[in-house]
Each structure stands twice: as C-alpha cells, then as structure tokens.
Amino acid sequence: MKHTIPFILSLFLFLLSIQLIPSHAFDSIFSFGDSYTDTGNLNVLAKKLKSSPVPSDNLPYGQTFFHRPSHRFSDGRLIVDFFAEEFGLPYLKPYLGKNGSFRQGANFAVEGATALDPTFFKEHNLTSYVDPLSTSLSSQLQWFKELKPSLCQTTKECRDYFSRSLFIVGHIEGRDYVLVPSSKLPMMVSYAAKIIQIIAGIIKELLDQGAQTVVVPGNMPIGCLPTKLDVFDLYAYDKSSYDPKTGCIE
C-alpha cells in the first residue's frame, strides 16, 4: 500500500485539474499516447497482424467498471475516460477500429507506443527491445491527418471545429526510457532532450493543424509506478533505494 500512495496522489491531482475547465467547454477529444490512454488500438493491430492475444482482451482488465475486458490496460477506466465523462462525451473509440463517426473525438493511442520513431532504435541497436506492434507518436499524428478531412474542410471550418476540441498528448515517453538498457545510461541526457524535441514538434504540428487546447501530462515518475515497484522489490533488503518521503524507487 505504501508504494501505491504516490501514484494514486499523482492521479488524483491530474484528475482534479479537470475541474478547472468548464464542463461545457469541449465537443470532442483527440487523444495520443500509450497504454495510459489506449482504448483498443493495440487490439486492432494485433488482429490485423495475427499476433498473439493482447492481455487486455481478458480479465482482470475491465472487471471493476465495465465488468468485461474493455481493451484498456486497466481494471477500470483510464484518465481519458474521466475527461470524456466530465465533458458529457462518449468514451473515445480507437481510431484503428474505423467504427462509426469520430465527430466527438478519436483515440490514436497505442499501448507500448514511443515518442521516437523505429528508425532511432534501429540506429542505436535497440531493435531487440521493440515490440513489433508498437507505434510512434509520428504515426499517430499521421492517423489524425488522415481523419481530419472527414471532420472539417476549410481553414475556417477547422478553426471553428477544433476551437471546441481537447487534444491530449501523452503519457507517451515512458517506454522510450524503458527501452534503454543500463549499459547505455550515459546517453540518457541527450536521449531525453531528443524525446522532448520530438514531443514539442508534434504539439506544434497539432497547433498548425488547428488545435487550440492541448493537454500534455508528461511522464509520471517511473520509480513510482506500481509495476516497477513490484518488479524491483528491493525494500526488504535495500531501503536506501527508496525515497523516504514518497516510497518511490530513486
């Protein structure tokens, strides 16, 4: 329980920020990211590529709210679901599902997605760590551009439509950092700068496409994630590895 408190607190503060925006402010939401916001795109990709079953296709994923597998990497709702509820919008459909209208928004996020393109990992001999189903943020941006003509045509139409649209970019870069093995940690500073540059470029591109309100959650403290606290369970024999105030791995 001690280790989950920082994560729950971060989630609470993030959701609290929703209350600062009028509930009638948006008519659509467009989400980009990874498993924190994926509502089914990975499942669509896995079926197309005839890959092995995706864990979120089975319980316990979805059991506490939807009472069935919901293609979300959560036992309940995701942060993006709470945004949709707050603004009176339907839960975002995965874009790759190509199911119905996306006038009220679309989800482009894919579990395991990275900010950096696959070419970067090839150039740095990190391909063995990359899931073949993974996508990059630039791929998600391209999907958005493909969808855009069905939403608006002229510059004025797009400006008016996107003035009442919320864009959520992230969480996204967590896997980029996880893919770097410990032997390559010295490159982390320049690596982080490149990730930030990529995300900033995507945000600018969205603004150029007409987006006006963009939320960028950023990367949660990796050492506070329940999965990391479970995998690297050092507390019993190395308490110095934990921050005494937060309980997170330093």
Automatic annotation (TrEMBL):
Keyword annotations: Glycoprotein, Signal
Signal peptide range in chain numbering: 1-25
Coiled-coil regions, chain positions: none
GO molecular-function term, one example from the UniProt record: hydrolase activity, acting on ester bonds
Transcription regulation found in the keyword field: no
Protein family per UniProt: Belongs to the 'GDSL' lipolytic enzyme family.
Name of the protein this chain belongs to: GDSL esterase/lipase
Species for this entry: Rhynchospora pubera
